[in-house]
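dude i think i finally got it to work??
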Amino acid sequence: MSTNAYTADSAVLAASIGSAVVYQAMVRASPSYSRMVIKTASTALLSVFSYLRGGPALLVGALALGSTGDAFLAWNDETSFLFGLASFLVAHILYIILFLHAGPGAGDIGAKLQVLQSGDTWRLGTAGALAVSVPAMIVQLMPKVGKGLRAPVAVYSLTIFVMALMALTLESKEIVIGAVMFASSDSILAAGRFLVPTTSAHQGWMHHAVWALYYGGQLLIALGAVARV
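look at this
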């Protein structure tokens, strides 16, 4: 890759991180188009960065869909939430395919699970924690969400679990940590939206934690994936 290409992707990455920092400062602000643009730019620029670095098409697509989901979730109405959920659902599916066909046991789910079982203890422990926490979260959410959201939320939660599980079979610690951070951000987002009262003092730190974990997770996945191109 030429020096100019490295300069371009470095500039795009810096702009992405800058946008993420700016959005963190306004994460609790009222919905607006400027807030939506800054939020969306953070992940959209990660997609551009991955493309410039010659990253896998699945990675570029997943990040682009993430930015689309960010645009929808910048608004608080239920329709936007559903469109955002759909965007992120497809993004997670792309990540699952990407992780499935990477690393040991590429393309073979059975081999992937064997790698996980015989790998580091912390990986297996993390997978076990997810296997317990994801169903527990679904059980808590079902009575709290509207009937029209129950199936989408359950499917989405299970898809996140599979995404994180596939990431845990990879050697890249950046991707593993990033995927777990992404899953954690979604759990906090769901808790804040459906389980914790909007008047609770916890809403403040939860909003900031969701963004930090989400963007940090996407950033680490992107960096881990392009490093192996």
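Residues 3-226 form one domain.
im so relieved honestly
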